[in-house]
Amino acid sequence: MSASQLAAEQFPALNALPGVAHGFTLRVAGIEMSTDKMEALARLDRVHREVRSENGLTDAPFITAQQIHGAHIGVVDHAVSKGECFERCDGLITNQPGVCLGIYVADCCAVYLVDPIRNAIGLVHSGKKGTELGVVSNAIRSMAEHFGSRASDLVVQLSPCIRPPHYEIDFAADIVRQCRNLGVVAVHDSGVCTACNLDRYYSYRAEKGRTGRMLAFLALR
To answer: Is residue 126 part of a domain?
Structure first.
């Protein structure tokens, strides 16, 4: 088994959906991460590419967001042939097959949104600030506006993220509550705290800001 196969996990609720590729990368042994974010991402890039490749996404355009702890959503509603980073966005939605959405986290929550009826997906970066601003709610509304998605049809998955007592609030619980208030029925939370599991995940708070990032990725095949 390769290092990249050991460096990602998947969620049962998303594995149950046909035509969806996804993953959440883990801490990678042997790569020094006591550095700033951009250098950390550069050092992790090879493994992250391998993980995407092993999930059938070798040639998929890789779409990311700038992630400024805001609430804007980038929309990919047309065919794209190369990667792009959406400026000033913290969430991405698409109905295009073969496009890989990516969000980086290290304590914040990566929220996966899948509409299996209309074949649309979303991926959102939601920490304390983004949750307060309703970034996940914005993504759900954007999927309805652009793709005709109904909240009641969505499957929502929360990634591992920081939680009490390692953090002062439980923003994961707020994300779940916001989803349910909009009518989402199928909300799944991993319930895992990144700061409690430093052997498996990176944690911005526990490692005082000098650490790596987990990549959440999601695509329609």
So the answer is: yes
| Boundaries of domain holding 190 | 31-53+60-220
Instruction: Give 122-147 pLDDT, tens digit per residue.
Output: 999 999 999 999 999 999 999 999 99
Q: Could you write out the DSSP letters of every residue in 7-32? A: GEE--HHHHTSTTEEEEEE---TT--
Residue 109: inside a domain: yes
Q: What is the spatial distance between Cα 212 and Cα 204, in angstroms, rounded to a whole number? A: 8
Classify residue 17: in a domain, yes or no.
no
Is pTM beyond 0.85 here? yes
Q: How many domains does the chain have?
A: 1
Exposed/middle/buried for residue 191 (C-beta within 10 Å: 0-12, 13-18, 19+)? exposed
Residues 109 and 161: beta-carbon distance below 8 Å: yes
Give the strand pairing for 186-189 and 155-158.
Answer: parallel
The tokens for 14 are 């998303």
Domain containing 94 — which CATH number?
3.60.140.10
End-to-end Cα spacing for the chain: 24
- Whether 26 is covered by a domain: the verdict is no
36-86 per-position pLDDT tens digit: 899 999 999 999 999 999 999 999 999 999 999 999 999 999 999 999 999
How sure is the predictor about 6, in pLDDT bands with cuts at 50, 70 and 90?
Answer: low
Three-class DSSP category at 65: strand
Dihedral angle computed from the Cα positions of residues 199, 203, 206 and 211, in that order, rounded to the nearest 10 degrees: 90
The answer to whether residues 61 and 47 touch, using CB atoms and an 8 Å cutoff, is no
